[in-house]
Amino acid sequence: MKELFRQTTDIIFVNLLWILVSFLGLLITLGASTTAMFRVTSQILKKNEPTNVLNLFLQSFKENFWISTLVWVVLLVFAAPLFYMYHYALNREAFILLLIAIVGAYQLLIVSLYVFPIIATFKTHNFYQLMKNSIIIANTNLWTNFKVLGSLAFLVLLIFVVHESLILIGVGFYGVLVSFHLKKVFHPYLVQLGDYSEEEGNENAIFKF
Question: What global pTM score does this model have?
Answer without folding.
Answer: 0.89
